[in-house]
Amino acid sequence: MDPVILNGHDLTFEALYAIAYHGCRVEIEPQAYRRLADSRRVMLGLSHEGKPIYGLNRGVGWNKDQTVLEAELEFENQKIVCAHALGFPPYNTDAEVRAMMAIRLNNMLIGASCASDELANMYRDFLNHGIMPRVPQRGSVGEADIVTVTHMGLAFTGQGEVSYQGEIMPARKAMEAAGIAPYRLRLKDAHTMMLSNSQGEAMTAILVHEVEDLVKMSDLIFCLDYEGLNGNIESLRADVNALRGLPGQIECAARCRKYLEGSYLHEPHPDRALQDPLTFRGGFTITGTVVDAVNYVKDYLQIQMNSPSDNPCVMPGKDEVYVNSNFETTTLAVGVEMLTIALGHMARAVNYRMIKMSSPEFTHLTRYLAPRDGSSHGYAIVQDAFSSLDAENRMLVNPSSVDFFQIEGGIEDHASNLPLAAAKAQRLTDNLRRLVGLEAMYAAQAVDLRGDIRLGRCTQAAYDAIREAIPKTAELRRVYDDMNNSYELICSGKLLERIGKL
Predict the structure, then answer these.
(1) Cβ atoms within 10 A of the Cβ of 374, count?
(2) Fewer CB in a 10 Å sphere around the end CB: N or C, the chain?
(3) How far apart are CA 163 and CA 174, in angstroms?
(4) Nearest to residue 439, comparing CAs of 355, 325, 340, 502?
(5) What is the rounded (10 degree) CA torsion for 327, 328, 330, 331?
(6) How far apart are alpha carbons 178 and 176 in whole angstroms?
(7) Which pLDDT value is given to residue 371?
(8) C-beta atoms surrounding 90 within 10 Å
(9) What is the largest CA-CA distance in the chain?
(10) What is the pLDDT of residues 183-217, one digit of tens each?
(11) Domains of the chain
């Protein structure tokens, strides 16, 4: 795999995921070092002329009125790191931390931050040696992820813990094994490391990647469920959806048409309803809403991954330093909350489809999709289990970006809570994996009870994968095991692998 060359301007999601998930190496574009040097020249020059500069010759936060002498810079940096690295467990995943380091390194290379070459190289070297600082997930209010991403700076100096070669160990031990010397803080390095939204941005990047895959699997299971129902698929027509014109709806309808190519649902059937309930007739429109929300989030996240969050910032190409609020990330946080609400709608639709598939009056199959020979109760009590998840999901969709109060002497009187919003969306997404897995159980069982029907090319592949993980419900066994196996099937991504080979 070719290394990703970072330059501050064109980091893509594909490149970020190669770094985060697959350990792709990174390199720094040579011209970026010139931008770093220019930013240092400008900021240090103005500081020597007596210009007050926040985080360099002045303190940070409420201490902005405190003067910092140049001879005190290293000690001041150390005090800042020790005072600000104080998040709460649980910890971000290795993939999220790799994404954090890549994002912060990338927007540092724009040349707005007064970062040293050595600091940039530390991010690069930690990534390339597979050293992931232990970053607590909780603690940031999203106005830059100050108290959490500072743990990365702590690790650079050889303090704290890291994940390295599958183990949690002291940072210094991992650095010694990799041949990396602990970093000595200089300039305004501590402030540069912590004045970043990279935690919330990385969590959001991982979120949208997982949601995109989950939507594809959900559409696939929805189609198999529709075959088990013997539903009316007129609503999937290309011309019908083009008439409405919603991008996500059009995309998901097209995907479902592909999944159902060759299915018996394309042929007339005397028992088919004129039209089905909305969660079936419009199931793809609901996942289309999720797609639209994902694309909104990705548009703004792409901007943030390639723009600086530094305050004050050096204006590239000018010998000027400006106070700013470029660490503000409310637009992205509100977008993540919109995505979470869309996921809540998707989860509710899956629940209602399963409830309806349990009703013989609706499906003309058995109650709870139980085997006809009476060997088990089928999915009689599964509704209790997913009802509890639904209650949790309703809690998770409640907005949190407006939950803040003024701190730091009243100076920091706004926040976005982006990491919290992203964490809630991730939790809801994991609940959805369970729900989609449960719907896979329902769909496969309905297909079995429906009898000799011809499935679509992709839905047949999905059915085969489900039945490899979950045998036919024709004997007495614990439904609990089937539930867990269905969840593992969704988490594994095997469904998408199977249809990707067709």
Answers:
(1) 9
(2) N
(3) 8
(4) 355
(5) -80
(6) 5
(7) 81
(8) 9
(9) 89
(10) 999 888 888 988 899 999 999 999 999 999 999 99
(11) 4-196 (1.10.275.10), 204-307+342-500 (1.20.200.10)
